[in-house]
Design a protein that fits this description.
4 strands, 6 helices, 4-stranded antiparallel sheet, alpha+beta, single chain, about 170 residues
């Protein structure tokens, strides 16, 4: 409960902060954040922060400080109240939604592949097209680039050969 009006704590919310997805909740005088980095190899939080968040009128500050002093710091009961499973599930859902949005945009594939980065963009675009369910990604990409499917297949075989044979890779 917050303040002397015995109103319930505000509902936890999600915020985008840079590349991170951040969950924010208030439990009495405590502000709890769980940070989920978008580039991490997992979809759950990697950082949990609990801070004393005292503010408002003089009465509210006094009441919040009294609550914090009663527990002599962060109480174990607060840790039990934090819905970790719910936070992780919501983070997964939000990151999947964001990833779906990201897969809708095509990669900027160059018309001619001259560098390793060009080849990487070409392969990334094919992976994206397969992920969204394109039935013939090579044909569609070849048509978009204005080349034949045979030419695209030849380029892809060169990429595969260079990836699997380090002796044929270009030196930088």
């Amino acid at each position: 409960m917050t303040s002397r009006t015995n109103e319930p704590d505000p509902q936890p919310e999600w915020q985008q902060q840079g590349d991170d997805l951040v969950w924010l909740g208030f439990y009495g005088p405590w502000r709890v954040t769980a940070r989920c980095p978008s580039g991490a190899p997992f979809t759950g939080p990697s950082e949990l922060t609990i801070r004393l968040a005292v503010g408002g009128s003089d009465d509210e500050i006094d009441q919040s400080m009294a609550q914090a002093l009663e527990t002599d710091g962060i109480p174990a009961s607060l840790l039990r109240q934090i819905p970790f499973a719910e936070i992780k599930a919501q983070a997964r859902a939000e990151m999947a939604r964001t990833a779906e949005h990201d897969t809708a945009r095509p990669w900027p594939v160059p018309e001619r592949c001259r560098t390793d980065q060009d080849y990487a963009l070409l392969v990334a675009e094919l992976v994206r097209m397969r992920a969204i369910g394109t039935t013939a990604p090579q044909g569609e990409l070849a048509a978009r680039l204005g080349i034949g499917v045979c030419v695209l297949v030849k380029v892809l075989s060169q990429v595969q050969m260079n990836v699997h044979n380090p002796l044929t890779r270009s030196r930088t």
